[in-house]
Amino acid sequence: MTKINVIVADDHPIVLFGIRKSLESMNWINIVGEFEDSTTLIESLPKLNAEIVIIDLCMPGDKYGDGITLLKYIQRHYSHLELIVLTMNNNPAIINIVLALDIARILLKRGALIDLPHALRSVKKGKKFISSDALRLLEKIRSNGDGKKSLSAKEGEVLRLFSEGSLVTEIAQRLNRSIKTISTQKKSAMVKLGVDNDIALLNYLSSLKIDSKN
Questions:
Q1: 52 pLDDT higher than 90
Q2: Distance from C-alpha of 78 to C-alpha of 131, rounded to nearest angstrom
Q3: Which pLDDT score, from 0 to 100, does residue 147 have?
Q4: What are the backbone dihedrals phi and psi of residue 82, each rounded to the nearest 5 degrees, phi first?
Q5: Dist. CA 158–CA 173, nearest whole Å
Q6: How many whole angstroms separate alpha carbon 165 and alpha carbon 69?
Q7: What structural domains does the chain harbor?
Q8: Residue 54: which of 14, 27, 92, 81 has the closest Cα?
Q9: Fewer CB in 10 Å around end: N or C, the chain?
């Protein structure tokens, strides 16, 4: 049986360990690299004969960033790689933005060990795979639809970091954009979402979350 070469990238050692154990049970998977930051991952890609990268949406690493910025970099420079995106962020707007990048596979971390085999098989079959809990999140935002305009990828990335507790100045530094640009993108996203202050924005983002017991 021909094995598929896979890279795993996540900054949590326990998650890496769990994924490794899950993949080791599949005799058609060969793990060729494990990484805990985006800089080491990107600089190692040319040396590895990988076909799939299982990657955390939120990864440390100054040089290549994380989140949407990192995913777009990989798509641009390593278009042959299939991406399976893992995320702890259960904001459906962020998931929508990831899918808008034409990424065919996204899983929430809480169910990743169960969903990963299905996602990997979907690559072999050339099919998409969105985990059931991610689909429930998307259904919730669609059922609450009220004609609001879609967020851009950059706006969504700003909201992701804002929802995780980062200040505008910190987001600007992390995304290598000016404070003015980040502030403008945040305000634009707020207009699209119909909120007029930070508390309302955080409440809106929180209201879209589904309890982890669901």
A1: yes
A2: 24
A3: 46
A4: -90, 135
A5: 12
A6: 19
A7: 4-142 (3.40.50.2300), 153-210 (1.10.10.10)
A8: 81
A9: N
Q: Which of 68-72, 73-77, 105-109, 144-148 is predicted least confidently?
A: 144-148
Q: Which of 9-18, 50-59, 143-152 has the lowest mean pLDDT?
A: 143-152
Q: Which helix (H) or strand (E) holds 60?
A: none
- The tokens describing 209, both together, are 């979350």
In which region does residue 150 sit, left (phi positive, over 0), alpha (psi from -120 to 50) or beta (all else)? Answer: beta
Contact by Cβ (8 Å): 6, 51: yes
Beta bridge partners of 6: 31, 52
Give the Cα separation of 17 and 195 in Å (integer): 41
Collapsing DSSP to helix, strand or coil, 21 comes out as: helix
d(C-alpha 61, C-alpha 164), whole Å = 17
